[in-house]
Design goal:
This protein is mainly alpha-helical. It has helices spanning about 30-40, 45-55, 60-75, 80-140, 145-155, 170-175, 180-220, 220-245, 255-260, 270-290, 295-305, 315-335, 345-350, and strands spanning about 355-360, 370, 375-380. α10 packs across α11.
Length: about 375
């Protein structure tokens, strides 16, 4: 703060005579823009600082609070003026604390930015030093690309002279006029190597992106995985049902229908296994469709819709079998590529005529994509 008498800055901030708070010093707009570009202050920006400075002023809400405190003190027989002033002082202290915290955070942010930039510059220096060291090593090696380039250029300037055993550094020292030509050609070589490396990196990124896309498809969406889970239960139930049927059990004849009403201890193993297969099938189908608890009426309706019952004719039995097949095929279609995802399932699919036509390994993930003759893919 500048003393009005002596004109000397005592180092203390200027105090607002109304609020009693430090006044933010004015700043040249150009300097302000420069600092904002140099320091990414974020929450500690000048805009936020100005807003906090504005909020730190004693406003109507603080004065109203002081008035209420004074009134309350008066009712209690205490000093009203002292109570009001105490409220204002507490408000000032809170606002000043907020300003102090902001300034400390701002200072730390600036220091952090300076440190990060210093580390970055040092890293650039280290990288440049290492590049210079690498280039020096290459130019000292007669068999390097840099030396071969110098040998070719030197042969053009001095035909008939053998430069094959000399390094680029040795040649440039013997033929000073070659140095400028060599530097130009060396930069061309560097640019070519950079373009080749960049093209290779782009190719790898495209390959990795494609591999990740295939992996994502193989993993499946939430709905596909759900369809696969219910579909596998339906498939297992259908297999169990057909196994029991293959052993001679027929739920559509009268004796089996009557036996199905007996307690489990009095029923045959085939009857119990058949009922379990039916329950598994119906539970999977109805749970998939509604996602809720299955009522007795829904279950009985499912039994009638999908499985043989006493009195069913040949056409009815075929229609029920077709209903079960359509349910399973629908779930397979909805599951998509996730249907055959285990090694055993894939091996079974290959035995059924599925043949591998191409393998592609991702250099980044280490996983291999296998493409089959039917267009399907898997990631291993």
């Amino acid at each position: 703060m500048i003393d009005p008498v002596t004109g000397i800055d005592d180092g203390q901030p200027e105090i607002d005579p109304v609020t009693g708070l430090p006044v933010a010093p004015s700043m040249n707009p150009k300097i302000k823009d420069y600092l904002m570009q140099k320091y990414n202050l974020g929450q500690y920006s000048d805009e936020n600082r100005a807003k906090l400075q504005q909020d730190s002023q004693i406003g109507l809400s603080d004065k109203a609070g002081a008035a209420l405190a004074a009134i309350g003190a008066g009712f209690q027989g205490r000093d009203s003026a002292a109570a009001g002033q105490q409220h204002l002082n507490a408000a000032k202290a809170d606002k000043q604390q907020a300003m102090n915290d902001f300034e400390r955070g701002r200072s730390a942010k600036i220091q952090e930015g300076d440190l990060n930039r210093k580390v970055e510059l040092e890293g650039r220096d280290d990288k440049k030093y290492q590049q210079d060291q690498d280039l020096d090593a290459k130019e000292s090696d007669p068999s390097s690309e840099e030396s071969k380039l110098a040998q070719q250029l030197a042969s053009k300037l001095a035909p008939g002279t053998d430069f094959s055993k000399l390094s680029a550094k040795q040649i440039n020292s013997k033929i000073p006029s070659l140095q400028k030509i060599y530097e130009i050609e060396q930069k061309k070589l560097d640019r070519q190597e950079s373009r080749t490396a960049a093209a290779g990196a782009r190719s790898e990124r495209r390959q990795d992106k494609e591999t990740l896309r295939v992996e994502k498809e193989a993993a499946g969406t939430k709905d596909q995985n759900a369809a696969r889970g219910f579909g596998k239960r339906v498939e297992a139930a259908e297999k169990a049902f057909n196994d029991v049927k293959g052993k001679g059990y027929d739920r559509s004849d009268l004796s089996s229908a009557a036996g199905a009403k007996l307690p489990n201890v009095l029923r045959t193993d085939a009857a119990v296994q058949n009922e379990q297969a039916e329950r598994n099938f119906i539970n999977a189908v109805l749970r998939r469709e509604s996602g809720a608890a299955i009522s007795d009426n829904e279950f009985k309706s499912g039994e009638t819709q999908y499985f043989p019952r006493a009195g069913d004719g040949e056409d009815t039995l075929k229609q029920k079998a077709e209903n079960r097949r359509m349910v399973l095929e629908g779930m397979k279609k909805e599951a998509g590529k996730t249907w055959e995802s285990t090694p055993d399932e894939k091996a079974a699919a290959e035995k059924a005529g599925k043949k591998e036509v191409k393998r592609q390994k991702s250099p980044s993930t280490g996983k291999t994509k296998i493409i089959y003759d039917d267009g399907s893919e898997e990631i291993i």
